[in-house]
Amino acid sequence: MKLGQKDFLGIDRFTTDELRGILELAKEQKPLARAHKLPHTHPNRTLACVFAKPSLRTRVSFEIAMQQLGGNSLFITDKEIGMGTRESVYDVAKVLSRFVDGIMIRWFDQGEVNELAEHATVPVINGLTDLLHPCQVMGDILTIEEHLGSIENKTVVMVGDGNNLANSWLNAARRFPFNFVLACPEGYEPDEAIMAAAENDSASFCIMNNPHDAIEGADVVYSDAFYSMGQEEEAKKRRADFAPFQITPDLLKGAKDKHIVLHCLPAHRGEEITDSVMDGPHSAVFDEAENRLHIQRAIIALLVK
Ligand code: CP
Ligand code: NVA
Fold first, then answer.
1. What number does CATH give the domain 136-289?
2. 11-133+292-303 CATH
3. 23 CB near ligand 1 (under 6 Å)
4. Looking at the annotation, which residues are catalytic?
5. pLDDT-derived band of residue 63, with 50, 70 and 90 as boundaries?
6. b/e burial code for range 11-31 (CB count within 10 A of at least 16 → b)
7. Are 141 and 173 in contact, with CB atoms under 8 Å apart?
8. Which of 56, 106, 164 to mutate to test the pocket of ligand 2 (most atoms within 8 A of CB)?
9. Are the folds of 11-133+292-303 and 136-289 the same?
10. 19 and 28 in contact (C-beta within 8 Å)?
11. pLDDT by residue (tens digit) across 215-224?
């Protein structure tokens, strides 16, 4: 399969068939990778992993994915690069493209990542920005399909912030026929342009303020931190505003009997989610973490030459 885009910047940039192709390749490769039998399709290729924010899952899964394909990875932080400060985004794009075969970047501003991708001649993969976290949601769809079958007609209820994850779920709802519900406090809604695009594409979504109403009939209950990386100064206010949005065993009573609970992690146990839910019988959070590896390896395999 060929992808119509050089870069993986957002789920909305791909067709449903292309996204389905990524998911199917991940499903095909997963058992081979687990058995250490994955063919080395990318020997001598290097992926630069650029980070302006901390990471466990994204860093480890991208680096391991590249090694499993027979290639190498390079970890570098923005402290060294100074993209946009020490030198321009354009120059970083041109220079990195001479050294490596792909760039994965975790950054603040989505616009700068788009600019990097525009000027790079190698694929650029979005490893999270303030606006989007597309690899996470693709891995989450993989996890949902492994546990519950096709995402078609499922109801995914996110309880929490209208953040980069909520925005990426909205983009996913523009391409796959499932229902997305976000329960958030007033004033914490997702990005307006993304909501407008979702409406324009007739995506099935709904933003609510009451988590108990929102969770009715959920197949998937989704959690994320009350404050994201870069919002640490707002932590106190957000903890108060989001207090009624904690995922507890009581809240889960409204979900379907066979629901699963996902959290992109890192979790603040006892804050947005209780230990009893994280470690409970419906939790699939560690399958979800593992699937970052499998989905991203498929994305690399399809994008990196
Ligand atoms: N879920 C996720 O992206 O985790 P990290 O921040 O640890 O990479
Ligand atoms: N919304 C969170 C996701 C972390 C994986 C953040 O941006 O920090």
1. 3.40.50.1370
2. 3.40.50.1370
3. no
4. 106, 133, 136, 224, 264, 292
5. very high
6. bbbbeeebbebbbebbbebbe
7. no
8. 164
9. yes
10. no
11. 999 999 999 9
